[in-house]
Amino acid sequence: RKERKRRKGEQEGSEEPAVEWPAGGEGAGVGMWKGRNQEAVIEGTREELGGPGSWGLEDAGLLARASLPVVFPWPLPLGSSALTVLLGALTSLFLWYCYRLGSQDMQALGAGSQAGGVNGGPEVCSQTGPRGSGDPGEGPRAEGLVSRRLRAYARRYSWAGMGRVRRAAHGGSGLAGGTGLLGIQRPGLLFLPDLPSSPFVPRDAQRHDVELLQSSFPAILRDFGAVSWDFSGTTPPPRGWSQSLAPGCYQLLLYQAGRCQPSNCRRCPGAYRALRGLRSFMSANTFGNAGFSVLLPGARLEGRCGPTNARVRCHLGLKIPPGCELVVGGEPQCWAEGHCLLVDDSFLHTVAHNGSPEDGPRVVFIVDLWHPNVAGAERQALDFVFAPDP
């Protein structure tokens, strides 16, 4: 009996006492924990959460709040003067950048306007050959400017009918020096794709304007007699006349780069009246010029190309002595007094007066007309993009 009591006591002594947590343990759902291993785990957890002590409802609430993301109130108060100064500096820098960008756009537009005919006048006498990549108004800068102006036009109006103009503005079809046919058609600024390409355009394509100019031949010839001079070169040109860079080439412009020249128009009422009656005159576009062109005997304008294929030049012959020649795209032609000749000057062309001094100068009245295959919506868009300088 004593041996059984001893063995029973040893078994009871080997059992580990149950661990009961202080107040709050059961209410928090912790319950009774038994064994040394469980007590060690709980003690380690309690130390991580804040050291010794009981783990009750308050501790569980803290643990739940600690697991949520931290959200700051917005907007943040501008309590720091340094932050205010930084925002002001960034705003000033942005405004300065906008000003610089606008200034560069206006300078590029002015260069494009000159390339479109300001310097050239009716026969683009200022050019000395086919336009290259380094000429004003060409290259990516002009291309970007045309694209920006076209987007501004589309925001104000619509993209309807702008397929060819859009392709030309993005340079996909030969903007600024497209190769054209066998390299002989090289417009310097704008190449409008899918236009019929021919050095000489049939007169029926612009029947109304051709007939109006030919019927106005006597009045235009009288206007030339009123403003002409001896063209000897011994005296400076009179008022209204300008000598181009090519020797022996003079011009008097009624419209220059889309802008009316009031004093010259008043001196040539018959020619001005005829211009006002034309339907396809590029009167509001920097590519548009109109006026008298004089070429003295022995003068020659070497191969050159115009700025765009979106126009055709109408030459009304006023005084055509023998020995005068016009070669466009390798095709020779000659003027006739009282008759019009439609020329696509985006083709390589050469003008020469091979007559004797006694024959007198060659005189033509030149007007820039829209290409007959440029649609009305495209004309309106190009007038916006290439508007004359104010």
What does this structure look like?
The protein has 390 residues and is of the alpha+beta class. The protein is 37% helix and 16% strand. It has eleven helices and twelve strands. It has helices at 2-14, 36-49, 57-66, 81-118, 139-156, 163-169, 207-215, 217-227, 262-267, 269-276, 376-385; strands at residues 200-201, 241-243, 249-256, 259-260, 290-295, 300-304, 311-319, 324-328, 331-333, 340-343, 349-353, 362-370. Strands 1, 2, 3, 4, 5, 7, 10 and 12 form an eight-stranded antiparallel sheet that branches. A four-stranded antiparallel sheet has the order 6-11-8-9, with no helix packed on it. β8 (324-328) and β9 (331-333) form a beta hairpin. The longest helix has 38 residues, at 81-118. The chain starts with a helix and ends in a 5-residue tail after the last helix. 34% of the residues are buried.
Produce a short descriptive summary.
With 390 residues, the chain is α+β, with helices and mostly antiparallel strands.
Q: Number of helical runs?
A: 11
Tell me the quaternary state.
single chain
Mean pLDDT comes to 76
DSSP strand count: 12
Any idea what the radius of gyration is?
43 Å
Distance between the termini: 128 Å
Largest sheet descriptor: 8 strands, antiparallel
Share of β-strand residues: 15-25%
Spans of 5+ residues with little confidence (pLDDT < 50)?
16-58, 103-120, 124-139, 173-179
Topology:
Elements: H1 2-14, H2 36-49, H3 57-66, H4 81-118, H5 139-156, H6 163-169, E1 200-201, H7 207-215, H8 217-227, E2 241-243, E3 249-256, E4 259-260, H9 262-267, H10 269-276, E5 290-295, E6 300-304, E7 311-319, E8 324-328, E9 331-333, E10 340-343, E11 349-353, E12 362-370, H11 376-385
Antiparallel strand pairs: 1-10, 2-3, 3-4, 3-5, 5-12, 6-11, 7-10, 7-12, 8-9, 8-11
